[in-house]
Structures
1.
Amino acid sequence: MHPEGRDNDMGVTPGLDMPLDEAMRTQRAIRRLKTDPVDDALLRELLELALKAPTGSNAQNWEFIVVRDPAVKAKLARFNRRAFSLYGRIGRRANQNDPKMLRLLDAVQWQADHFEEVPVLVIPCLKGARLPFPSVAVTSYYGSIFPSIQNFLLGARAVGLGAALITLPLWNVIAARRALGLPWSVTPCAVIPVGWPQGRYGPTTRRPIEDVVSIDRYGNRAWREA
Amino acid sequence: MHPEGRDNDMGVTPGLDMPLDEAMRTQRAIRRLKTDPVDDALLRELLELALKAPTGSNAQNWEFIVVRDPAVKAKLARFNRRAFSLYGRIGRRANQNDPKMLRLLDAVQWQADHFEEVPVLVIPCLKGARLPFPSVAVTSYYGSIFPSIQNFLLGARAVGLGAALITLPLWNVIAARRALGLPWSVTPCAVIPVGWPQGRYGPTTRRPIEDVVSIDRYGNRAWREA
């Protein structure tokens, strides 16, 4: 049992009762993970919280694949490396003067290099046809999975597990579908590598609220003066 | 000042320190809202938590429109009613034997009838082109806004504000863009009507985890036996 893990079977799992605002203020993508195993019961609790998120028309049309099988992991690792070899090159060139983005790319590179060693991958999927238009149908579709993904990530942060939302392993969605045995009616939406973090969680910096909020109409930055 | 609202300027806003798992377990869409005003400072705190959510490549390419202007609200109310008059009819016919869905449709109907009286609407948007393909590019795009929407909704639940994620007012995205003064480069993703609830938050029911989780490959419901 990991020291930060579940340590009793009664009541709330230690950590999950973290104050909401603290969990949000200290959430960040954790990519460098230890190889220590992740307890099934703990993972289950995070998935149960994920299932508490809202879905369009309360359809709950989600599916979650929990991958520990080395053979399936190896396939996704290969897809991820292939996509990152292109994305990483472009990214480094485009951000060569941005040390923060270069650090992020270093972490993504580390993740690509160690993908097979990640203890567990969680792959949230949606069932049912995604209409290609109108754009709001597309929005509503993804609005039924990302709230649950955010619940999962916040839960992981609260219990001290490292996690990050990535999509690179899904660039070739046909290959990803085959690796996971997904029928055409189920669309993989993201991959969440999960493990105990090498680094730590902590406060993040963001663009100031005054720069991204408009009042009544776009561009009216009244909060800037308030 | 509303009794459930912010009552000091030091430390954490009352409610926002709700245990994470409690906030998630009792989150639900609240559509029947009082007309009491919503404090600007409280709204700002929820938006600050929304901005703590992750975005793809940490782009933070979001924009939030906070609408209190009755003229803008009236336009969105009209769009919402128009879309619901069709959606609601289809929905009632399709779910005539499902009392739970009919109750949900009643709430959506109430919301449509009282849309102009909602104290404040929050409209999360994304900046930048949405590539129509590959599908994972679309996924990644929406993956940069719905985590922040979920933060906002969880924060609202924690402080006792009612809120719900809807998209019907955006079905005609050209009209919605015009009403909000959005340039082509900014896409509205959802509308969140916010106000003090007439009803109350409480535990929700969901499909059992064993029915939606697969181990290693789709369809392997090993957790069902565990």
Note: The CA atoms of residues 161 and 196 of chain B lie 5 Å apart.
2.
Amino acid sequence: MNKNRLEAFSDGVLAIIITIMVLELKTPEGTNFNALLKLFPIFISYVLSFIYVGIYWNNHHHMMHTVKKVTGGILWANLHLLFWLSLIPFATAWIGEHNFAPFPMFSYGFVLLMCGVAYNILQNQIIKTQGENSLLSKAVGKDFKGKISPVLYLVAILSTYYHEVFSGIIYILVALMWLIPDKRIEKIIDNE
Amino acid sequence: MNKNRLEAFSDGVLAIIITIMVLELKTPEGTNFNALLKLFPIFISYVLSFIYVGIYWNNHHHMMHTVKKVTGGILWANLHLLFWLSLIPFATAWIGEHNFAPFPMFSYGFVLLMCGVAYNILQNQIIKTQGENSLLSKAVGKDFKGKISPVLYLVAILSTYYHEVFSGIIYILVALMWLIPDKRIEKIIDNE
Amino acid sequence: MNKNRLEAFSDGVLAIIITIMVLELKTPEGTNFNALLKLFPIFISYVLSFIYVGIYWNNHHHMMHTVKKVTGGILWANLHLLFWLSLIPFATAWIGEHNFAPFPMFSYGFVLLMCGVAYNILQNQIIKTQGENSLLSKAVGKDFKGKISPVLYLVAILSTYYHEVFSGIIYILVALMWLIPDKRIEKIIDNE
Amino acid sequence: MNKNRLEAFSDGVLAIIITIMVLELKTPEGTNFNALLKLFPIFISYVLSFIYVGIYWNNHHHMMHTVKKVTGGILWANLHLLFWLSLIPFATAWIGEHNFAPFPMFSYGFVLLMCGVAYNILQNQIIKTQGENSLLSKAVGKDFKGKISPVLYLVAILSTYYHEVFSGIIYILVALMWLIPDKRIEKIIDNE
């Protein structure tokens, strides 16, 4: 059972997800700077979500690199992850079109949280197939970023009760934290 | 004649089909929970169709695994399958936007039925090319799920005459039946 | 210079072209059979164009099979072909939404004609690179279908002056002619 | 770390970018030549942007050909390039729908400029990984076209202050300059 098609299909879905978000940037009604400026919240939400989908693609790429055998469990855990990722354009459009209002920000965080949960389920499925001594198992052993992210999403979601700006700051911080490339898996592979 | 491009093209079409359905989830007009709640029927229909397309991708992946030689017949049977699958987003939007009304539910079942028929035509084309003793031929020999599905779709279609809720339940049950990964082909390949 | 990426990119564009046409099938306004029936012209134009794009994908697949070296000329001739193919969804929507009116039918034929011309340019670029004794050169030597198609498109375009139904019949006949799988290239490859 | 998935993902995004631009060509309201003629500015802007995305795909294809090891830096520089390229459909729609008005033409040039900058960043990341004696490093040594393009974009952007027609001419000239296939990398690879 080869993993090429799993990667190709995931790449296709991720490429579409990342690109349909730009359809939210509708043509401005006027032809001056002010007309463009009105799109600023939508643009900002696009940048943030583009980075998040990029992070998932990047991590997915690294994680799949360690997979040797694709089981039914991995296939469906992967589709489950793609399902939640496919809701990012929806949540992105909502926060962008409504100036980062509290409940849309809450929902955006919820989608990110579910993406994180789905990513962990996929990771566990892969480790289950490969055994506890696998490359991936070692790599995620001290997975600080993977463990702290869902906690931060939860804090962000709850913080929308006080002010949505807190959640916005947390979403940006988590993205920045992940932008730093994940050296863990690369290192262990190099050491083998 | 290699099968890589057939798989790549099918993956591309399936990835787009699965992702354009999410475009139906239009941005809510308000920013509260009630505004989101109005999208619930569209969300439910999206989840159901996402699972169906996922099942087709999964089974297509398994079936193509047994193909060695791509003939013109297989190419066109595959395009025929993709045609009916491409109508799933349309039928999904219709049932979602009109609260699962009887005739849209009838049409949704009809599209699923035609997808099932097209899948069987493709399967027969592959078996015809490979001979009766092929891996796939053995695998589908006792293909209970493949044989019962069209019957269940037909029952679901007809049941919309009495109440659309019956068809809804059947669509969910068939999806659940297929979610259980198809071990048949995997087993026979392992035994070879 | 490898051809895999050329094929992958072309497959991606063709997969998107074939799938965005289905976006024209907008959700019916009602929930009965009459509401669905109104979409019939759009559905018919979708079926026809789906077959045309399928034919191009199929033939492209066969033709690329004979390519060994991708030159700049082949790259751009391929992009030129994709450009004209990308206009098929536009022409399809126009004839479907306006009940096959004469000028849209004229335009549809023009797009098909330009696709055919672009396909021939790509074919010539490939033959030029491979020499007159190449597989492809032999295969297209007696290329009856390739030579008669542009003539038929021209006749169809001009016939819209009298009645658009003539052009419609010709578009269907050309599609049927191509649906018969192209055995020429397959045969010569097998004979080598 | 293999580059196949990086190429596949980039191809997917580029294929979608190039194809969603055609969605701007909305069905004409009438069925005569005048109705079609109204779309002429949108069509022209589509042709121009199609060529630009084609150029980027072509050059990306050549540049990636020289990459042996994909680092985190290359991954993110590539995503950064895709981000700016994904804004081309937006800028294209704006100039097309507003008859090439000055500020949209300014913005179109800005997006092209940023694409050029992002392309150079990616190029530098690749050279950094491969060392100063790499194939790519030699190839871009006298990279006249790569160095003059950003300057020309800047001139075009500033020229919109006087008249937008100047910027339009420059955008066309830069596209034509790049249409001539880049023989540099091909040559050096052949000489090795």
Note: The two ends of chain C are 24 Å apart (CA to CA).
3.
Amino acid sequence: MTGAGDLAPARLIVEAAELTRFTAASLRAAGASSADAAVTADVLVAADLAGVESHGVARLRRYVEGLKTGDINRDAVPEVVGDKGSVCVVDAHNGLGQPALCTAVDLAVGKAREYGTSAVMVRRSNHMGIAGWFAERAARAGMFAMVSTNAVPQVAPMGTSEPMFGTNPFCYAVPTAGGILCFDGATSVVSRGKLEQLDRTGKPMQTGWALGPDGRPSLDITGTVTGLINRKGHALLPLGGGEADHGGHKGSGLALFIELLCGPLAGARWSRHTYRGGEAGLGHFVFCLSLDALGDPGAIAAAAASLAREVQGAPGVDPQDPVRIPGERRHRFTRARLDHGIPVLESVLQDLNDLAELVGIGPVATVEHDLPAPQH
Amino acid sequence: MTGAGDLAPARLIVEAAELTRFTAASLRAAGASSADAAVTADVLVAADLAGVESHGVARLRRYVEGLKTGDINRDAVPEVVGDKGSVCVVDAHNGLGQPALCTAVDLAVGKAREYGTSAVMVRRSNHMGIAGWFAERAARAGMFAMVSTNAVPQVAPMGTSEPMFGTNPFCYAVPTAGGILCFDGATSVVSRGKLEQLDRTGKPMQTGWALGPDGRPSLDITGTVTGLINRKGHALLPLGGGEADHGGHKGSGLALFIELLCGPLAGARWSRHTYRGGEAGLGHFVFCLSLDALGDPGAIAAAAASLAREVQGAPGVDPQDPVRIPGERRHRFTRARLDHGIPVLESVLQDLNDLAELVGIGPVATVEHDLPAPQH
């Protein structure tokens, strides 16, 4: 019943269908509609399936508590408040982020089928899980898609130690003849979730990842995680770090790209204005480009697969470790965990069962026997 | 007549109008049409104005020689070979990259005015200078724009030492109430042009920038520059470097984003297939999103300016060095150099005058007196 490695904390196995059922039931019990609960549970469990536990059911408490306190509007119905040609603006009315962004993706796909390209922006929204789930949804519909969101400020642009940007994922997906290729990564060097994960397994922090309240590199991993959560002056560094020599200005420019689109352009809050007065006010954006509008989508998907195969086939620096293309690891995890169940930390499981009691539903069912863990 | 710093090589001052006139005259004398020569000269000199000399007239020889040998088709007229809703595909017919991409930007702006969003892809093209020039052109027309290109492979994705991607710039521009904000940066940690510049001034190479033919970090700056030019097994590293710990997989995913769009999606060549058989076969892409389609463009531009001002106003790690927003340095350079002239390296000037002789035009006129240099 333990994971791999001496320091790995104990985990129990939960089947994907059970984790999804439980998550949806918790959200419904907290006041979400059945449809909203279903899509939100799908997105959260997709992260656990993909091995991105920081964005999975470990976050369910915040959703359930948000719905119960009213910080997240349980009665919200995403509303199209702007619709001009291939562009829509959606007001999420402070509801759950997942249903709002799912609405936006489906609108964007429809618009791109009609016009060739589209952009849909969401305002007054909340946390929406992993961007990749949404980009892959659009890619399955034949789109080259970009999806992103802003978030609570945790990332300091180069030159300051003040967090001004969310971890603002850069995310795209495209259908290829070899399957959907999807990249989804925070525009910080590391995400807070990654730090939490390393902290749990006793791994050290590295320079170039985060700054302390004194504006100097922080090497205290627990302190950094706590400081980020409590907004006590810690900051993650953008991709490229805090210095121009390794491209910190480029990571800053990338995080700003997403903050601009999701904040000012979406008519949403941005940066330090998010999460004020009981409302997150986050923004999301979706861009779609239909392969159909470009030419023969089969030929394009075949060419994209060729490029991906050539990258994978480049000689590895370590011959044991072939070059990876984006999403490979997540897809491998997902296949294994759909077959063998999802390992959930005992501490997370305890929290889920405490939540169950809070909202008056039964506990999560775990699998009795230990299943083979997927290889990292 | 010398620049700042002991190691800075000698430079002569040329007025921007004269450098543009000379560049256009050289291109015309090499066979380009007046219109193609004019836009190409504008884009090249814009790089020199902005302090991005690696993309400026120092590259003119390759253009002139390409036109003369026929490697670049002097008679090419960009042709719209696909036009479906908001999407166009342009065949550059192996002509100069600048006129082809300029055509694409103008098409994209027109389409986005009509539909709200647009994408225009260019295939069978050549080097096109700085992406920022094109993104700013679209932003001046009220667009949030992305522009990029692929290029000769010089960047090794994480996990291999084989160059698979061009330096593939990530570039966007947006109109704000405080002026156009434009980010334009290679998706490698450093560009080859930056290495050449450091090499000329005797500055050292850093680990995490490039690999040698043995797949290990290269610290030999001259050897790396030569190796990259001659394709002798050197490779630049993607933003984030060669290791996952600092996000090398993210930089790789970003470079792949551009290679996918400019190669397979544009119907152009990609990666190691570029520059084969006397034709570069490069691809470019333009995305436009009209602020008009999103709502009140004035309000959006004001919000974008607020975000930019807040970032600039964040307390600096070094109080003497305020936080910069993308494009600030380039705009400052451009203002100063429009007023006071462009310092051009003596070696570059000599090369320009050799070119002039080759194509039978007069030399570049330099300014007699040394003008104040802009502050870096």
Note: Residues 253 and 268 of chain B are 19 Å apart (CA to CA).
4.
Amino acid sequence: MDRVMEGKEIDILYHLGLDTTQDLSIFKDVKFVCMGGSAVRAASFAEDLRKRFTPDVEGPPQPVGKTERYHIYKVGSILSASHGIGMPSMLIMLHEVAKLLHYAGATNVQYIRIGTCGGIGSEPGTVCVTTAGCIGTLEPVYEAIELGERKKYSAAVDSALVERLIQVAGELKIPAVSGMTMGTDDFYEAQGRLDGALRPSFTEADKMAFLKKAYDAGVRNIEMESTAFAAFCQRAKIRGGIICAALVNRLNGDQVTSTPQQLGEYSLHAQTVVSEYMWQELHTKDADDDSSAAKRARCT
Amino acid sequence: MDRVMEGKEIDILYHLGLDTTQDLSIFKDVKFVCMGGSAVRAASFAEDLRKRFTPDVEGPPQPVGKTERYHIYKVGSILSASHGIGMPSMLIMLHEVAKLLHYAGATNVQYIRIGTCGGIGSEPGTVCVTTAGCIGTLEPVYEAIELGERKKYSAAVDSALVERLIQVAGELKIPAVSGMTMGTDDFYEAQGRLDGALRPSFTEADKMAFLKKAYDAGVRNIEMESTAFAAFCQRAKIRGGIICAALVNRLNGDQVTSTPQQLGEYSLHAQTVVSEYMWQELHTKDADDDSSAAKRARCT
């Protein structure tokens, strides 16, 4: 984060239910912030992480701060958080978590969004790793209006992290693709769905033509957060990645028709890849540190 | 709703956890859908409504459908629902609730969004009744991108409902103003806040100049849902209103500094107005119906 809260005595992280009068030092060791829309998934992922990363700690993990809007769990050096649906909801959490970790003195933190999505040419269960977010016109940007002026920010994603996530998915034999992710501000018309409550201005044939055009432009999935997430991470100089499990292949239909059991299994695919990625990152780093320490020890 | 789901055997209202294979007839009598961001407020409002409208029913009300994304409570002919933060999250609920009520055969349903907001020239506790939503450029529209094309929809609100809500607030001696409501896709930079995690492109002076310009254009408050809500209701031919309690006067500062007790009290202001409005609507209508029934009885 390139901004220091200068001249401020107290900062109230209103939506998290935390503020700078509290002791935030427990967050100093955070290295990963994993986030997704659902509070239920944030909790279950936190419990899965506890079993793997901190098995000696009694579970299940309890949320930090207030839970009216977001749920945040801390498991070792990992936060598992829910951001609700859509960019506006997620941005509040991104701003307040970034401030929280800044105040706590955490460094080199990676943010990973773990979501569900509609695949474009990707079958249910495939994990889609985002190379860049794009808006509905297929431009790879996040659009905002600030003080009456329209702004565009790049929505590209750290390419080294994309490669690592694809590599780890391969090691786990989980089907994975990388490509652009269309981030929309609506689940129905903005994603070309014909099954919303309103009479859309387009036909089934229009929709299929657009989805094919998006595919040809390199879009592999559609969700509701990618452009704002990518732009935020880039501006804040945070290494950030997005990995989503496809629940439906939109080239075959609009509705989510898999069973709840299948959906649960598909969602787990993305979590499993991220869990393994973090395990490798933390343990390789530990190994590096050990090796450095060993080298230093030899020199003394 | 002007759309009939033709040729569909089953419609899955995925995010509500309901579908058309279930008996949805309990929703046939619904006349009001009240909604706000927070699940906690949806529950407490439902309980307040139960005590007033259906005191013989044991409480507290239990949510309908799944609660992973949204919480919906039914109290007599009223639904109290949470839609999360922001337009993308709210739109999913609007589409799926409108379809639900359509399938259930409910008629003449009014939708009222009860929120919290930043006031512009309105002190904390004032209720702001929306005459139209506007985007950050101050145009009274909702903007969308559908199949690659940019669209604008009118975000005007039913003026008769605005007048009634202002009238009821007056009867209850709750401070109220009406005016345009700026609906933004972000709580920080898009609302001109300087206290987010990113270095904004504007200064305190720029912000104040913009807020004053917005005030002069007729904007009285800022929240994150107004334009999409107003446009949805207008397109779906639903009578819809928006009433929000100001938690801060943005002409005086950015941060929410009231105590939790004060904030709870302010939030209640908007709920109290809506509760009284619905009471009057239902009981005046009942009186009309009784009177019509009496007339019909006299004619037979």
Note: Residues 63 and 229 of chain B are 23 Å apart (CA to CA).
